[in-house]
Amino acid sequence: MKRIGIEVNGVLRDTIGKFKQLYEKHMIENYEAENSNQTFSLDLSGNTILDEVEESFEYKITLPVDSLDLKNHFSFKSDEELYDFMFEDFPMQLFGHAGSCETYSFNDLNEFYTKNRDNYEIYIVSDEIGKSKPATLFFLSKFGCLIENIKFYSTTTIDQMWEKIDVLLTANPDLIENHPDNTIVVQYVTDYNKSINTKHKIDSLKDFDELINNIEL
Q1: Within 10 A of 173 (CB to CB), how many other CB atoms are there?
Q2: What residues have CB less than 8 Å from 187, skipping those under 6 apart?
């Protein structure tokens, strides 16, 4: 029985959209509010002077978000600050409470699953580390995902993910362009991968069922 993997980020979960929302609130708005108050003091003659304010780091968003290299689009002081933002400070808000990519993503997903589960082994796959794992399980539960096979992977375990599946539906440009020769990749088209030209692609999850039945597996 052939095995199909459907990736969470960019296909089911609008992770980038939620990231932008959290960044605007917690990095831009909060930081500007914390640094907006000017402080004054008296000099030796009793005159009021504006205290020197240390030049602050500018948190900003560079649009469009047309790559998955988030530091190209969201400014952070360091890689460590970006990591903490995602996996320490806001993992549940980001990975658990993000919206779905389409209004009916999970209706279409569950319909695909119930229609094809006797013909294929169907997996949910997702690139997760640390606290993003339970947050992603919450996300899948919240939207009523019926698929019971879930495979988390990381950069060190990605080969194990490829060994599990024969076909992968993904929006990740790296996975679209770099995959084992014996694996078929279906591109879910997004702003950050639309420049890639692949043989198999869809614009909406509801089109996956027709496509998969026309692919020679």
Answers
A1: 18
A2: 170, 171, 176, 193, 196, 198, 200, 201, 202
Are both 90 and 146 inside the same structural domain?
no
Burial 184-193 (b: 16+ CB within 10 A, else e): bbbbbebebb
Which of 114, 130, 112 is CA-nearest to residue 167?
A: 112
Please give the DSSP secondary-structure letter assigned to residue 39: -
Give the CB-side neighbour count of residue 28, counting CA atoms within 13 A: 13
Residue pair 195/184 in contact (Cβ under 8 Å)? The answer is no
Can you give the CATH number for the domain in which 113 is found?
3.40.50.1000
| 8 and 46 housed in the same domain | no
- Give per-residue pLDDT as tens, 191-208: 999 999 999 999 999 999
Residue 109 token pair: 């997903």
